Amino acid sequence: MIAVNPTDSASVLAAFGALGVLVVIFAESGLLVFGFFLPGDTLLFPAGVLCADSSGNGARLELWQVLLCGAVGAVAGGQVGYLLGRHGGKALLARPSSKRLREGAGRAERFLARYGYGKALVLGRFVPMLRTVLHPVAGALDVPVRTFTLWQTVGGLLWTQSLVLAGYLLGTSVAHVEAYLIPTVAAVVVVSLLPLLWEALRARRARAHTRAPRHVRDTSAVRKAPAEDAPERSPEAEFPASESPVQEDD
C-alpha cells in the first residue's frame, strides 16, 4: 500500500500522476475545508517539469494529460466552490469557530470590491490561499452566474496552462532541473504575485491622481473666501485726496 501525502506535490505526482493534478487542483479551487492545505502552484509547475524529457529516459508524465487535468480541475473546482457559497456559504463563513475562514472571506470580499468581478477572478487565481476562498465568497455575494463562469474559466485556464507550460519549458531547457525544484517553485510563487502587486501600485497612483485636483479646488476656494467677505470700499478710498476729481465752479 502506497502512503500518499496530499500536501506534498512530489508524493501526489508519484502516486497518481495527472489524475492527482486534477483532484488536488479541484479541491484547492473550491473546497474551503481542505483547499487551504493543498498545493497549487507547487503542484502544477513540477508536473510540467516531469513532462519534459530532460534526463533522456523519457517523459514520466504526458503533457497533454497534465494540461487537460489541470484545466478541468480548476474550472470544475471553481464552479463547485461558487455553488457551495451560493447555497450555504454565508452561514459557513460566519461561523465563530472558523476565524481563518472569516479572515479569508473578508480579504476576498475586499478583493472583489476593489478590482471588480472579472479582474478579481482572473488575478485571484494567481494568489495562494486567496483562490481557495474567492469562489465560495463570490457565490455568497451573489455574483451573477454568467459573469462568474466566464471569468473564473479564463482565470483557471491562464493559471494552470501557464504554470504547467513554464515548468515544461524549463525542464526541456535545463538538464537535471529536478534538483533545483524547491527554489524554482519559490520563484514561481513570487512571479505569480507580480500581477497583483502591479495592480495595487496602479490603484495607489490612481487614488493619488484623483486626490490632487480636489486639493487644488479646495485651496482656490479658501483663497477666494476673504475677497467675498471683504467690506465695501468708500468713495474716499477709491479716490485719494491727491487724485480726487476736480469740481467745476458755478
Using DSSP, what is the number of strands?
0
Major beta sheet, specifics?
A: none
Rg result: 30 Å
Secondary-structure content class: mainly alpha
* Portion in strands: under 5%
Return residue spans where pLDDT drops below 50 for at least 5 consecutive residues.
none
The average pLDDT value, as a whole number, equals 77
Helical fraction equals over 70%
Helical run tally: 12
Shape: globular
Write structural notes for this entry.
This protein has 250 residues and is mainly alpha-helical. The chain is built from twelve helices and no strands. It is globular and about 50 Å long. The mean pLDDT is 77.
Keywords:
250 residues, mainly alpha, 12 helices, 0% strand
What secondary-structure arrangement, pairings included, does this model have?
Layout: H1 9-16, H2 18-28, H3 32-35, H4 41-51, H5 63-93, H6 99-115, H7 117-123, H8 130-140, H9 145-173, H10 181-192, H11 194-229, H12 235-238
